[in-house]
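Components:
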Amino acid sequence: MNKAIIPLIIGNWKMNGEIKQLGEIDSLNSMLNNMNNNNCHTVICPPTTLLISATQLNENSKIAFGGQDCHIEQSGAHTGDISAEILKDAGAQYVIVGHSERRSDHGENDELVQEKANAAFRADITPIICIGESENERKQGRALKVVLEQLDKSIPTDIKDIIVAYEPVWAIGTGLVPSINDINEMHDAIRAALVEKFGVNGEKTPILYGGSMKPNNAKEILELSNVNGGLVGGASLKASDFIQIIKACQ
Ligand code: PEP
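Structure:
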């Protein structure tokens, strides 16, 4: 891990989390307070219904919060959607955009993801922009090409403050993880593309790995020089698992 970039471990709770799940944030807080040296930023993206309670209960804690998606508009007639401004109003500092489950469940494409990232800028919150190849694309040897194309089209033309999350679709929620060499190759390629496009700003952009990151594999992944943290689904739901990944990040 390149120490010039503050590492981030971000929990994506997806569509999991009733009110009682706030207790896990409480437990995580106590565990973080008991850590002597923590060099890593911790973020949780709970379901929107928990966002206000989570941010209010943890106002002075070491945990920041984010949304899982946003609409491109600020407000208006978009039933069931949520804007980046409303997320910000609820205490979010981050928002995930372009998660593969949004891309597959809701047909979101790179152009829309880019607009969502721009909506996050407008609301002054940081977009976590997800990219990643499918199993077939990996098998056909097209992973690098596909991911770099997604990166190019999904990130705004002026990157300001963004986080990129490389999440191979076939690794999400499956227990499968690419080889360390493949993760390394992909993160190096994403870094090179960011630097080519944005110069020094591209050097500072955090690139997270996501896809079945667990306490038992986090350390090896997080040690790679262009892996600046993790986007964690299943293993973020229990404080006892999540804290181990945060500890692996030191
Ligand atoms: C995710 O949903 O972003 C994710 C990485 O999930 P999991 O860790 O469960 O694979």
